[in-house]
Each structure stands twice: as structure tokens, then as C-alpha cells.
UniProtKB/TrEMBL annotation:
Domain of life, source organism: Bacteria
Name of this chain's protein: Transcriptional regulator
Gene Ontology MF annotations: DNA binding
Pfam families with a match to the protein in the record: HTH_3, MLTR_LBD
Residue span(s) of domain HTH cro/C1-type: 8-62
């Protein structure tokens, strides 16, 4: 079996598809798919492109498929410190984070904080690394007991983090590692054993800061559209959203 055949078989297994089901989904025959899997037929650029498109795989997965097929790389792996990646992050910071009056960050799939605005740095200063050379990581912050003690309804919120990371882990290896690490550390041991009969529209995060002030909030998560880079595809912009006037005041540092 070739490297591409193994990648294809692993992907099919992860999706829970038989050869016949995958062949139908991507518009080919089971015989052709079997030949590609076993290495009897070489994947063409058209086959790989159709596979990526019809299975809605991530850009990182597309990059892996093109590499395994030995085809010219359509989605090159760029260095995180490259000018192109830096420019994308600068755009998110300049056009979004600086204009948001409440805490806002940009994270990668490993939940490393790549950019943040002043309200975030001010309010979360006690949980950020003292040295400026090492970026903060939201997963590491969540591991701290002093941070979790600020979240009055942590068991409810932990469940949302669980589902969010679980979804990200299906698309990004970095998120998979973070998710596994948090589970192994027991961070999600507090999850309820049953789902409530009638869940609210959303669950507010109930924060109590060390100075005694509090805030009820949720967040909005967004990404740049038309992205064609595997790294930038995984970047998320998270905007903290206060749910009442007192919370807005608490989340707006003077």
C-alpha cells in the first residue's frame, strides 16, 4: 500500500465510510477507489481535488493528501513567523481586536493566544506569562485553579469547552493534543452525567474577579473567509460579549 493509500484508508475509517459509500460520495467507482487505496492506481490531481471538495476536509488535511500523493503542493505549509502569516494576524488585530471595547483574542488550534487587545491583557494579566517571549495559552490558563475559581458556573461552561475542542480535534492535530491533555488532567470530570431536559438558548459565563467585581458574558467566535492557508484556517477570533450593562462596565478596563 502506498502512503496515499494509507492516508485515504485512514480518512475513510475516520469518517465511518465503506469503499462503496465513499466512492458514491466522491463520484467514482468502488473498483477505482480500491485500486487507489491498494496502490494499483496512482491518484491524479483531479481525484485528490474531488476528494477534498466532496468530503469537506480541512486545509491541513488537503495539504497532507497532496503531499502523500506526490503532487505539486496546492496548500504549502508556511512558517508561523512568515511575513504572510504575520500580515494575516496583523489584519485581524488591526481591523477587529482594536475596535472591540471588551476582551478579544486570536487563537490557533492549540489555543495559543496569538493576538489580544488591551481589555483582555488588562483583565487577565494575573494569568498571563510574566515574560513577553512566551505566548499565553488559553488551555493552560484553564488548568489553573485560580482561574477556574473565577468561573462560578464552571461545570456548565466546561461542557461548552468540551464540545468546542472535540469538534476542533476532528480537524486539527494541535487541537487533538490539547483536548486529550485536558481530558487526561481531569478538567472535564465535572461534566454533568445527563443532558438537561430543556437547555437555555445559551449559558452565560458567570465570572467573579479577584477584586470582587463580576460579569456575565458569552463570546462570539469567527474566522477569516476565503482562507487558503492551513495555518490561518485554524485561527479563531474570539470576542467577549457582556450580557448586561454592569458586565459591560466590568469588562471595560479604565
Amino acid at each position: 500500500m502506498t502512503a496515499f493509500g494509507q492516508v485515504l484508508r485512514d480518512m475513510r475509517g475516520a469518517l465511518g465510510l465503506s469503499q462503496a459509500e465513499m466512492a458514491l460520495q466522491i463520484g467514482t467507482t468502488q473498483r477505482h477507489l480500491s485500486f487507489v487505496e491498494t496502490g494499483r492506481s496512482a491518484p491524479t490531481a483531479y481525484f485528490v481535488t474531488r476528494l477534498c471538495r466532496e468530503l469537506n476536509v480541512s486545509l491541513a488535511q488537503r495539504s497532507n493528501l497532496f503531499a502523500a500523493a506526490g503532487l505539486p503542493q496546492a496548500y504549502p505549509a508556511r512558517d508561523p513567523a512568515s511575513p504572510e502569516i504575520t500580515a494575516a494576524l496583523d489584519t485581524m488585530e488591526r481591523c477587529v481586536l482594536r475596535h472591540w471595547p471588551f476582551p478579544a483574542i486570536v487563537m490557533n488550534p492549540a489555543w495559543t493566544i496569538l493576538r489580544s487587545n488591551r481589555p483582555f491583557r488588562t483583565l487577565f494579566a494575573p494569568f498571563l506569562p510574566e515574560t513577553g517571549n512566551r505566548p499565553a495559552n488559553l488551555a493552560e490558563i484553564m488548568m489553573r485553579p485560580d482561574y477556574r475559581s473565577m468561573v462560578v458556573n464552571w461545570p456548565d461552561i466546561a461542557e461548552h469547552f468540551y464540545y468546542r475542542l472535540q469538534w476542533a480535534a476532528t480537524r486539527h492535530d494541535e487541537a487533538k493534543e490539547v483536548f486529550a491533555g485536558l481530558k487526561a488532567a481531569g478538567l472535564f470530570d465535572v461534566l454533568p452525567r445527563s443532558i438537561p431536559g430543556a437547555a437555555p438558548i445559551f449559558t452565560p459565563v458567570d465570572l467573579r474577579f479577584p477584586d470582587g467585581t463580576g460579569a456575565r458574558l458569552t463570546s462570539m467566535v469567527g474566522q477569516l473567509m476565503t482562507v487558503q492557508d492551513p495555518l490561518v484556517e485554524g485561527y479563531e477570533i474570539e470576542l467577549f460579549v457582556p450580557l448586561d450593562d454592569d458586565s459591560a462596565t466590568a469588562l471595560t478596563p479604565s
